[in-house]
TrEMBL record:
It comes from Streptomyces lycii. Belongs to the FPP/GGPP synthase family. Keywords: Magnesium, Metal-binding, Transferase. Its cofactor is Mg(2+). Residues 48-59 have a biased composition (Basic and acidic residues). The keyword Magnesium applies. Residues 1-65, 418-440 are annotated as: Disordered. This is Polyprenyl synthetase family protein. Residues 23-41 have a biased composition (Low complexity).
């Protein structure tokens, strides 16, 4: 089993950043959720705690050693400015929407996408000695984190997910705010509508932060093209995810297309591409980073699919089996259906299709499906695919004309975010440990 490295040296909604946030030195704990308070001190305290004293080095100057701190510093300063701006427009808006959103961004997540931007920049020739360029790259990296925050808020809305990072999702928290204040109308509708605005705000702020990261001439033009493509691809992936569920498309090819657009591209490949563009990287270097990034990103999403079924809420920050309850047509499910047909396992195929067509899985039902997926050999096949993708990506990086320090960090980061192994599922009560006849 591979082990997760510190995100600061280097170190993810999967497409949904499911995993429990990794705490690093200097990151304060998440402030409690103030669903019914007018003003929450947590964000201001976080902002003050991360401002360097005059005699200290700013975190940007040591980004190679502690990238998380450098990104956190950039995000905290920027969100502090935007929170003050929001308060000038409306104290209510700032307290109910902006402050909780800022706490959500600053209180969790592994900063994977910023890490790939940074190490893509370093791999393609970016040098940390130029303080101005370092600040610009960190602002671009932080903008990608805000883009991710927008995607998470909207993803939870569309999936009907109640939890994110082990806390109430934005629409759930905002509905609770409505009820606590005794407001008129339907609390759930209010929560949904306000969460849409929250995600839109995050996207607008991501664009604003990106535009504030100056890149001149051809380098700037290339970087903007990558940024624009990444936003469109992310939305396209989300749409295809919804569409394939609606049309009941169970093919592995369709599942991989969604995984690539919705997660692999904007989690790894495009952030690496963005970093390379900001560095003015050569064609061969950029192509290698994109090839490796596509494979790492797909492996990351396949691991996310496995964790959703076989992991626990402590692992993912969301209830176990969420993808199954939502009827998600993941690559894991496509592989399982294909193997069930190949093995003549009509009963197993029926159970899998029942889950996809009638979401709302019980704990006992989840236990049964875990056994089916393992018994068919589907989980093991996906594990092998992850291993192949990560190995291929590492070889691509090793052979490419890239900075050795960045290759080392990217290889460790790829290992860390795709690490894990599915445990043997516990059989449901009254059932044998194996269903029998499975091919591995």
């Amino acid at each position: 089993m591979r082990h997760l490295p510190s995100t600061g040296a280097p170190g993810p909604a999967g497409s949904r950043d499911r995993r429990t946030p990794v705490r690093t030195a200097g990151r304060p704990p998440r402030a409690p959720d103030p669903a019914a308070t007018e003003r929450a001190p947590g964000f201001a305290a976080h902002e003050a705690a991360t401002e360097p004293a005059d005699h200290e080095r700013a975190p940007e100057s040591a980004a190679d050693e502690d990238l998380t701190a450098a990104v956190e510093h950039t995000l905290t300063r920027y969100l502090g400015e935007r929170r003050a701006e929001a308060a000038r427009s409306s104290d209510r808006f700032a307290a109910d929407v902006v402050e909780p959103f800022c706490r959500f961004v600053l209180g969790g997540g592994k900063r994977l996408r910023p890490a790939f931007v940074w190490w893509g920049w370093r791999a393609a020739g970016g040098r940390p000695g130029d303080a101005g360029r370092v600040r610009a790259v960190l602002r671009a990296a932080a903008a990608v984190e805000l883009l991710q925050a927008s995607a998470l808020v909207h993803d939870d809305l569309m999936d009907g997910s109640a939890l994110r990072r082990n806390e109430p999702a934005a629409h759930v928290r905002l509905a609770a705010r409505h009820r606590a204040a005794g407001l008129r109308g339907n609390a759930e509708t209010f929560g949904l509508h306000t969460a849409v605005l929250t995600g839109d705000l995050a996207l607008a702020w991501a664009d604003d932060l990106w535009e504030s990261a100056p890149a001149q001439g051809e380098t700037g033009s290339r970087a903007r093209e990558v940024w624009h493509a990444m936003r469109t691809e992310m939305v396209a992936g989300q749409y295809l995810d919804l569409y394939h569920q609606a049309e009941e498309n169970d093919s592995a090819a369709a599942a991989l297309r969604v995984a690539r657009l919705k997660s692999a591209l904007y989690t790894v490949e495009r952030p690496l591409h963005l970093g390379a563009a900001l560095a003015g990287g050569s064609g061969p270097a950029t192509a290698a980073l994109r090839r490796a990034g596509g494979r790492i990103g797909l492996a990351f999403q396949l691991r996310d699919d496995l964790l959703s079924v076989f992991g626990s809420q402590a692992d993912t920050g969301k209830p176990a089996g969420d993808d199954l309850r939502e009827g998600k047509r993941t690559y894991l499910m496509a592989v399982a259906l294909r193997r069930a047909r190949a093995q003549g396992r009509a009963d197993a195929e029926r159970q899998l299709r029942d889950v996809l067509r009638a979401p709302g899985l019980t704990p006992a039902g989840l236990a049964r499906i875990r056994v089916v997926l393992a018994d068919l050999g589907a989980a093991a096949q996906v594990e092998r695919q992850i291993e192949r993708l990560v190995h291929s990506a590492a070889e691509t990086l090793r052979r490419a004309p890239l900075a050795p320090v960045a290759v080392h960090r990217l290889t460790a980061l790829a290992d860390g975010i795709t690490a894990g192994a599915c445990p043997e599922p516990e059989p449901p009560p009254g059932r044998p440990a194996r269903l029998g006849g499975g091919v591995r």
